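Sequence, structure tokens quoted for completeness.
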Amino acid sequence: MRAVHPIEARSYEILRARVDTSGLPPLTRAVTERVIHASADVGYLGDLAVSAEEHLRAAAAALRDGAPVVTDVEMVAAGVTAVAPVCRVREAAGGGGLTRSAAGIRLAYAEVGPGAVWAVGNAPTALEEILRLDVRPVLVVGLPVGFVGAAESKQALRESGLPAVSNHSEKGGSAVAAAAVNALLYWEGS
């Protein structure tokens, strides 16, 4: 069982005093609260989009069974605390219309194959590449941030029908993508 620091416990008390997450399904609530906790942005309560509670449960179970976590950038990987994610952006070379982040996704997929949890917190092009490659994920955490392509890539993820956590707005980022994955890794429910 993970030890919770008193500061984290107090943060959750404050969060729950400001927004009511009690109506959410248990794992959706855990993901939503961890994203809000990581960002101090209660707006995620209305902005986050979870494809289905059962998708989160399947991802949490897969992670317990050793499914890999793949990230678009090292900042997301650094924030995932319970496992060592696969991130290949450092080894990747962009070019020919492909960004380094998208090229890193290709390298990672060649390494891990289907059945991974994919976490994108920075590059909309990485999320677009996940959709193009048909990676057959357990779950895609698609929370890239930015004014160019972020909202559109997340909409494409939601429209793809893949099991996913995303949001509707342009906000996102490495911390919130890692937080969503950590919520799944920390989950102790059934």
